[in-house]
Design goal:
The structure is a single chain. With about 220 residues, this protein is of the alpha/beta class. It has a single domain, classed as Alpha-Beta Barrel (TIM Barrel). The chain is built from eleven helices and eight strands. An eight-stranded parallel β-barrel has the order 1-2-3-4-5-6-7-8, surrounded by six helices. The longest helix is centred in the middle third of the chain and has 15 residues.
Length: about 220
Amino acid sequence: MTNEEILSHIDHTLLKAASSWVEIEKLCGEAIRFKTASVCVPPSYVKPIHNVYKGELVICTVIGFPLGYSVSAAKLREAEAALAEGALELDMVINLGDMKNGAFERVSDEISALKKIAGKRILKVIIETCYLTREEKIRLCGMVTDSGADYIKTSTGFGTAGATLEDVLLFKEHIGPDVKIKAAGGVKTREDLEKFISSGCDRIGTSSAVALLAGDEVKGY
């Protein structure tokens, strides 16, 4: 697998709370130069990126991030604002409390409502696997599928653990044919990147892939 092939699956990510515009500019420049699938950035940076780069790259942002327990009305408004300001992809976090309480219809309804707002634009659903049982993960595969979302995503990268190949293979077994998989959190080596892509991940969210694969090219950028 070539560097270019791997990078085409990368959501080049910077979601630190204290991310500066200088860091965001560097992220965007790398994404354009190395042709990553997108940049994944905080919602507050969507409009500035859209204004500066004017369609040169795909902007992804996060909704209800990283804990997911915002009320649905807040998530919907956040999604509307992000799309209006130039986001083309949304990575939402489910309400894990609803999931643990057995309020499955509330979780499904929230995903469906966000997909309705997204329309043809991509919605990825972060289920935060580190907090879920195997049965809950399987149930969420069905809920994400039935709600019309485009991707199921393993993790925020802010939880107690990130993506595992075991979870990716479990997703593959239980999602519908139109749902893709995104892994995030802890995918840091070239071997990891290749394994996750080969195992069925269409996207990987990481801050380190460009530096890892492009190496000296990034240092000289």
